[in-house]
Amino acid sequence: MKQLLMATTNEGKLNEIRMMLEGTDVEVLSLKDAGILTEVVEDGKTFEENALIKARAIMKETGKLTLADDSGLEVDFLNKEPGIYSARYCGVNTPYSIKNRNILERLIDVPDEKRTARFVCAIAAVFPDGSEKTVQATFEGRIGYEEKGEHGFGYDPIFYLPDRGCYSAELEPEEKNRISHRGKALKLMLDELKACGALG
């Protein structure tokens, strides 16, 4: 079985990625699984830069093919906030219930057509020989008027999908993984890794 080191400790992300790779001969290892305690400072200006910063740092430490993602929510009415600061929005370790409430309150009385938003995911792969690959994908929708749904994590409960008439957190995990920013980006990256022989 091939191992893929994912430079994250986010259990929500790991669960999604492992679910997407079920039935394959690829085992996803987290930083915790690999015994890596390194904290990488993400000081890039874009999702792609941050993903590369993480992947480069962990590959350098381990010498293994490393994948890292950086993802977040862009709300057009808020000048694309929280963007690359999605995980640190409203302060480090602030619960997402508070982050979500803050966004909903800032959009009170904003009409549907101005509530457009998207999730963005960039995934970087850094190889032991120093070569790199990056991909990026989006998941379009808008900010709803309440928190709704029991699935997903993070900003999913306020992310409304007009074409499906439901919130991201109301989607079954399999469906969300098929259409989400991370699902689409991971598929692109796996195709890249297979094409270059990294996954056989």
Question: Can you lay out the helices and strands and say which pair or pack?
Answer:
Layout: E1 2-6, H1 11-20, E2 26-29, H2 47-62, E3 66-75, E4 81-82, H3 96-106, E5 116-126, E6 132-143, E7 159-161, E8 166-167, H4 173-179, H5 181-195
Parallel strand pairs: 1-2, 1-3
Antiparallel strand pairs: 3-4, 3-5, 5-6, 6-7, 7-8
Helix pairs in contact: 1-4, 4-5
Structure description:
This protein is of the alpha+beta class and 200 residues long. It has one domain: Maf protein, CATH 3.90.950.10. It is 30% helix and 24% strand. The protein contains 5 helices and 8 strands, in the order E-H-E-H-E-E-H-E-E-E-E-H-H. It has helices spanning 11-20, 47-62, 96-106, 173-179, 181-195, and strands spanning 2-6, 26-29, 66-75, 81-82, 116-126, 132-143, 159-161, 166-167. Strands 1, 2, 3, 4, 5, 6, 7 and 8 form an 8-stranded mixed beta sheet that branches. Helix 1 (11-20) links the parallel strand 1 and strand 2 (26-29). Helix 1 (11-20) packs across helix 4 (173-179) and helix 4 packs across helix 5 (181-195). The longest helix is centred in the N-terminal third of the chain and has 16 residues, at 47-62. The chain is globular, with a radius of gyration of 17 Å.
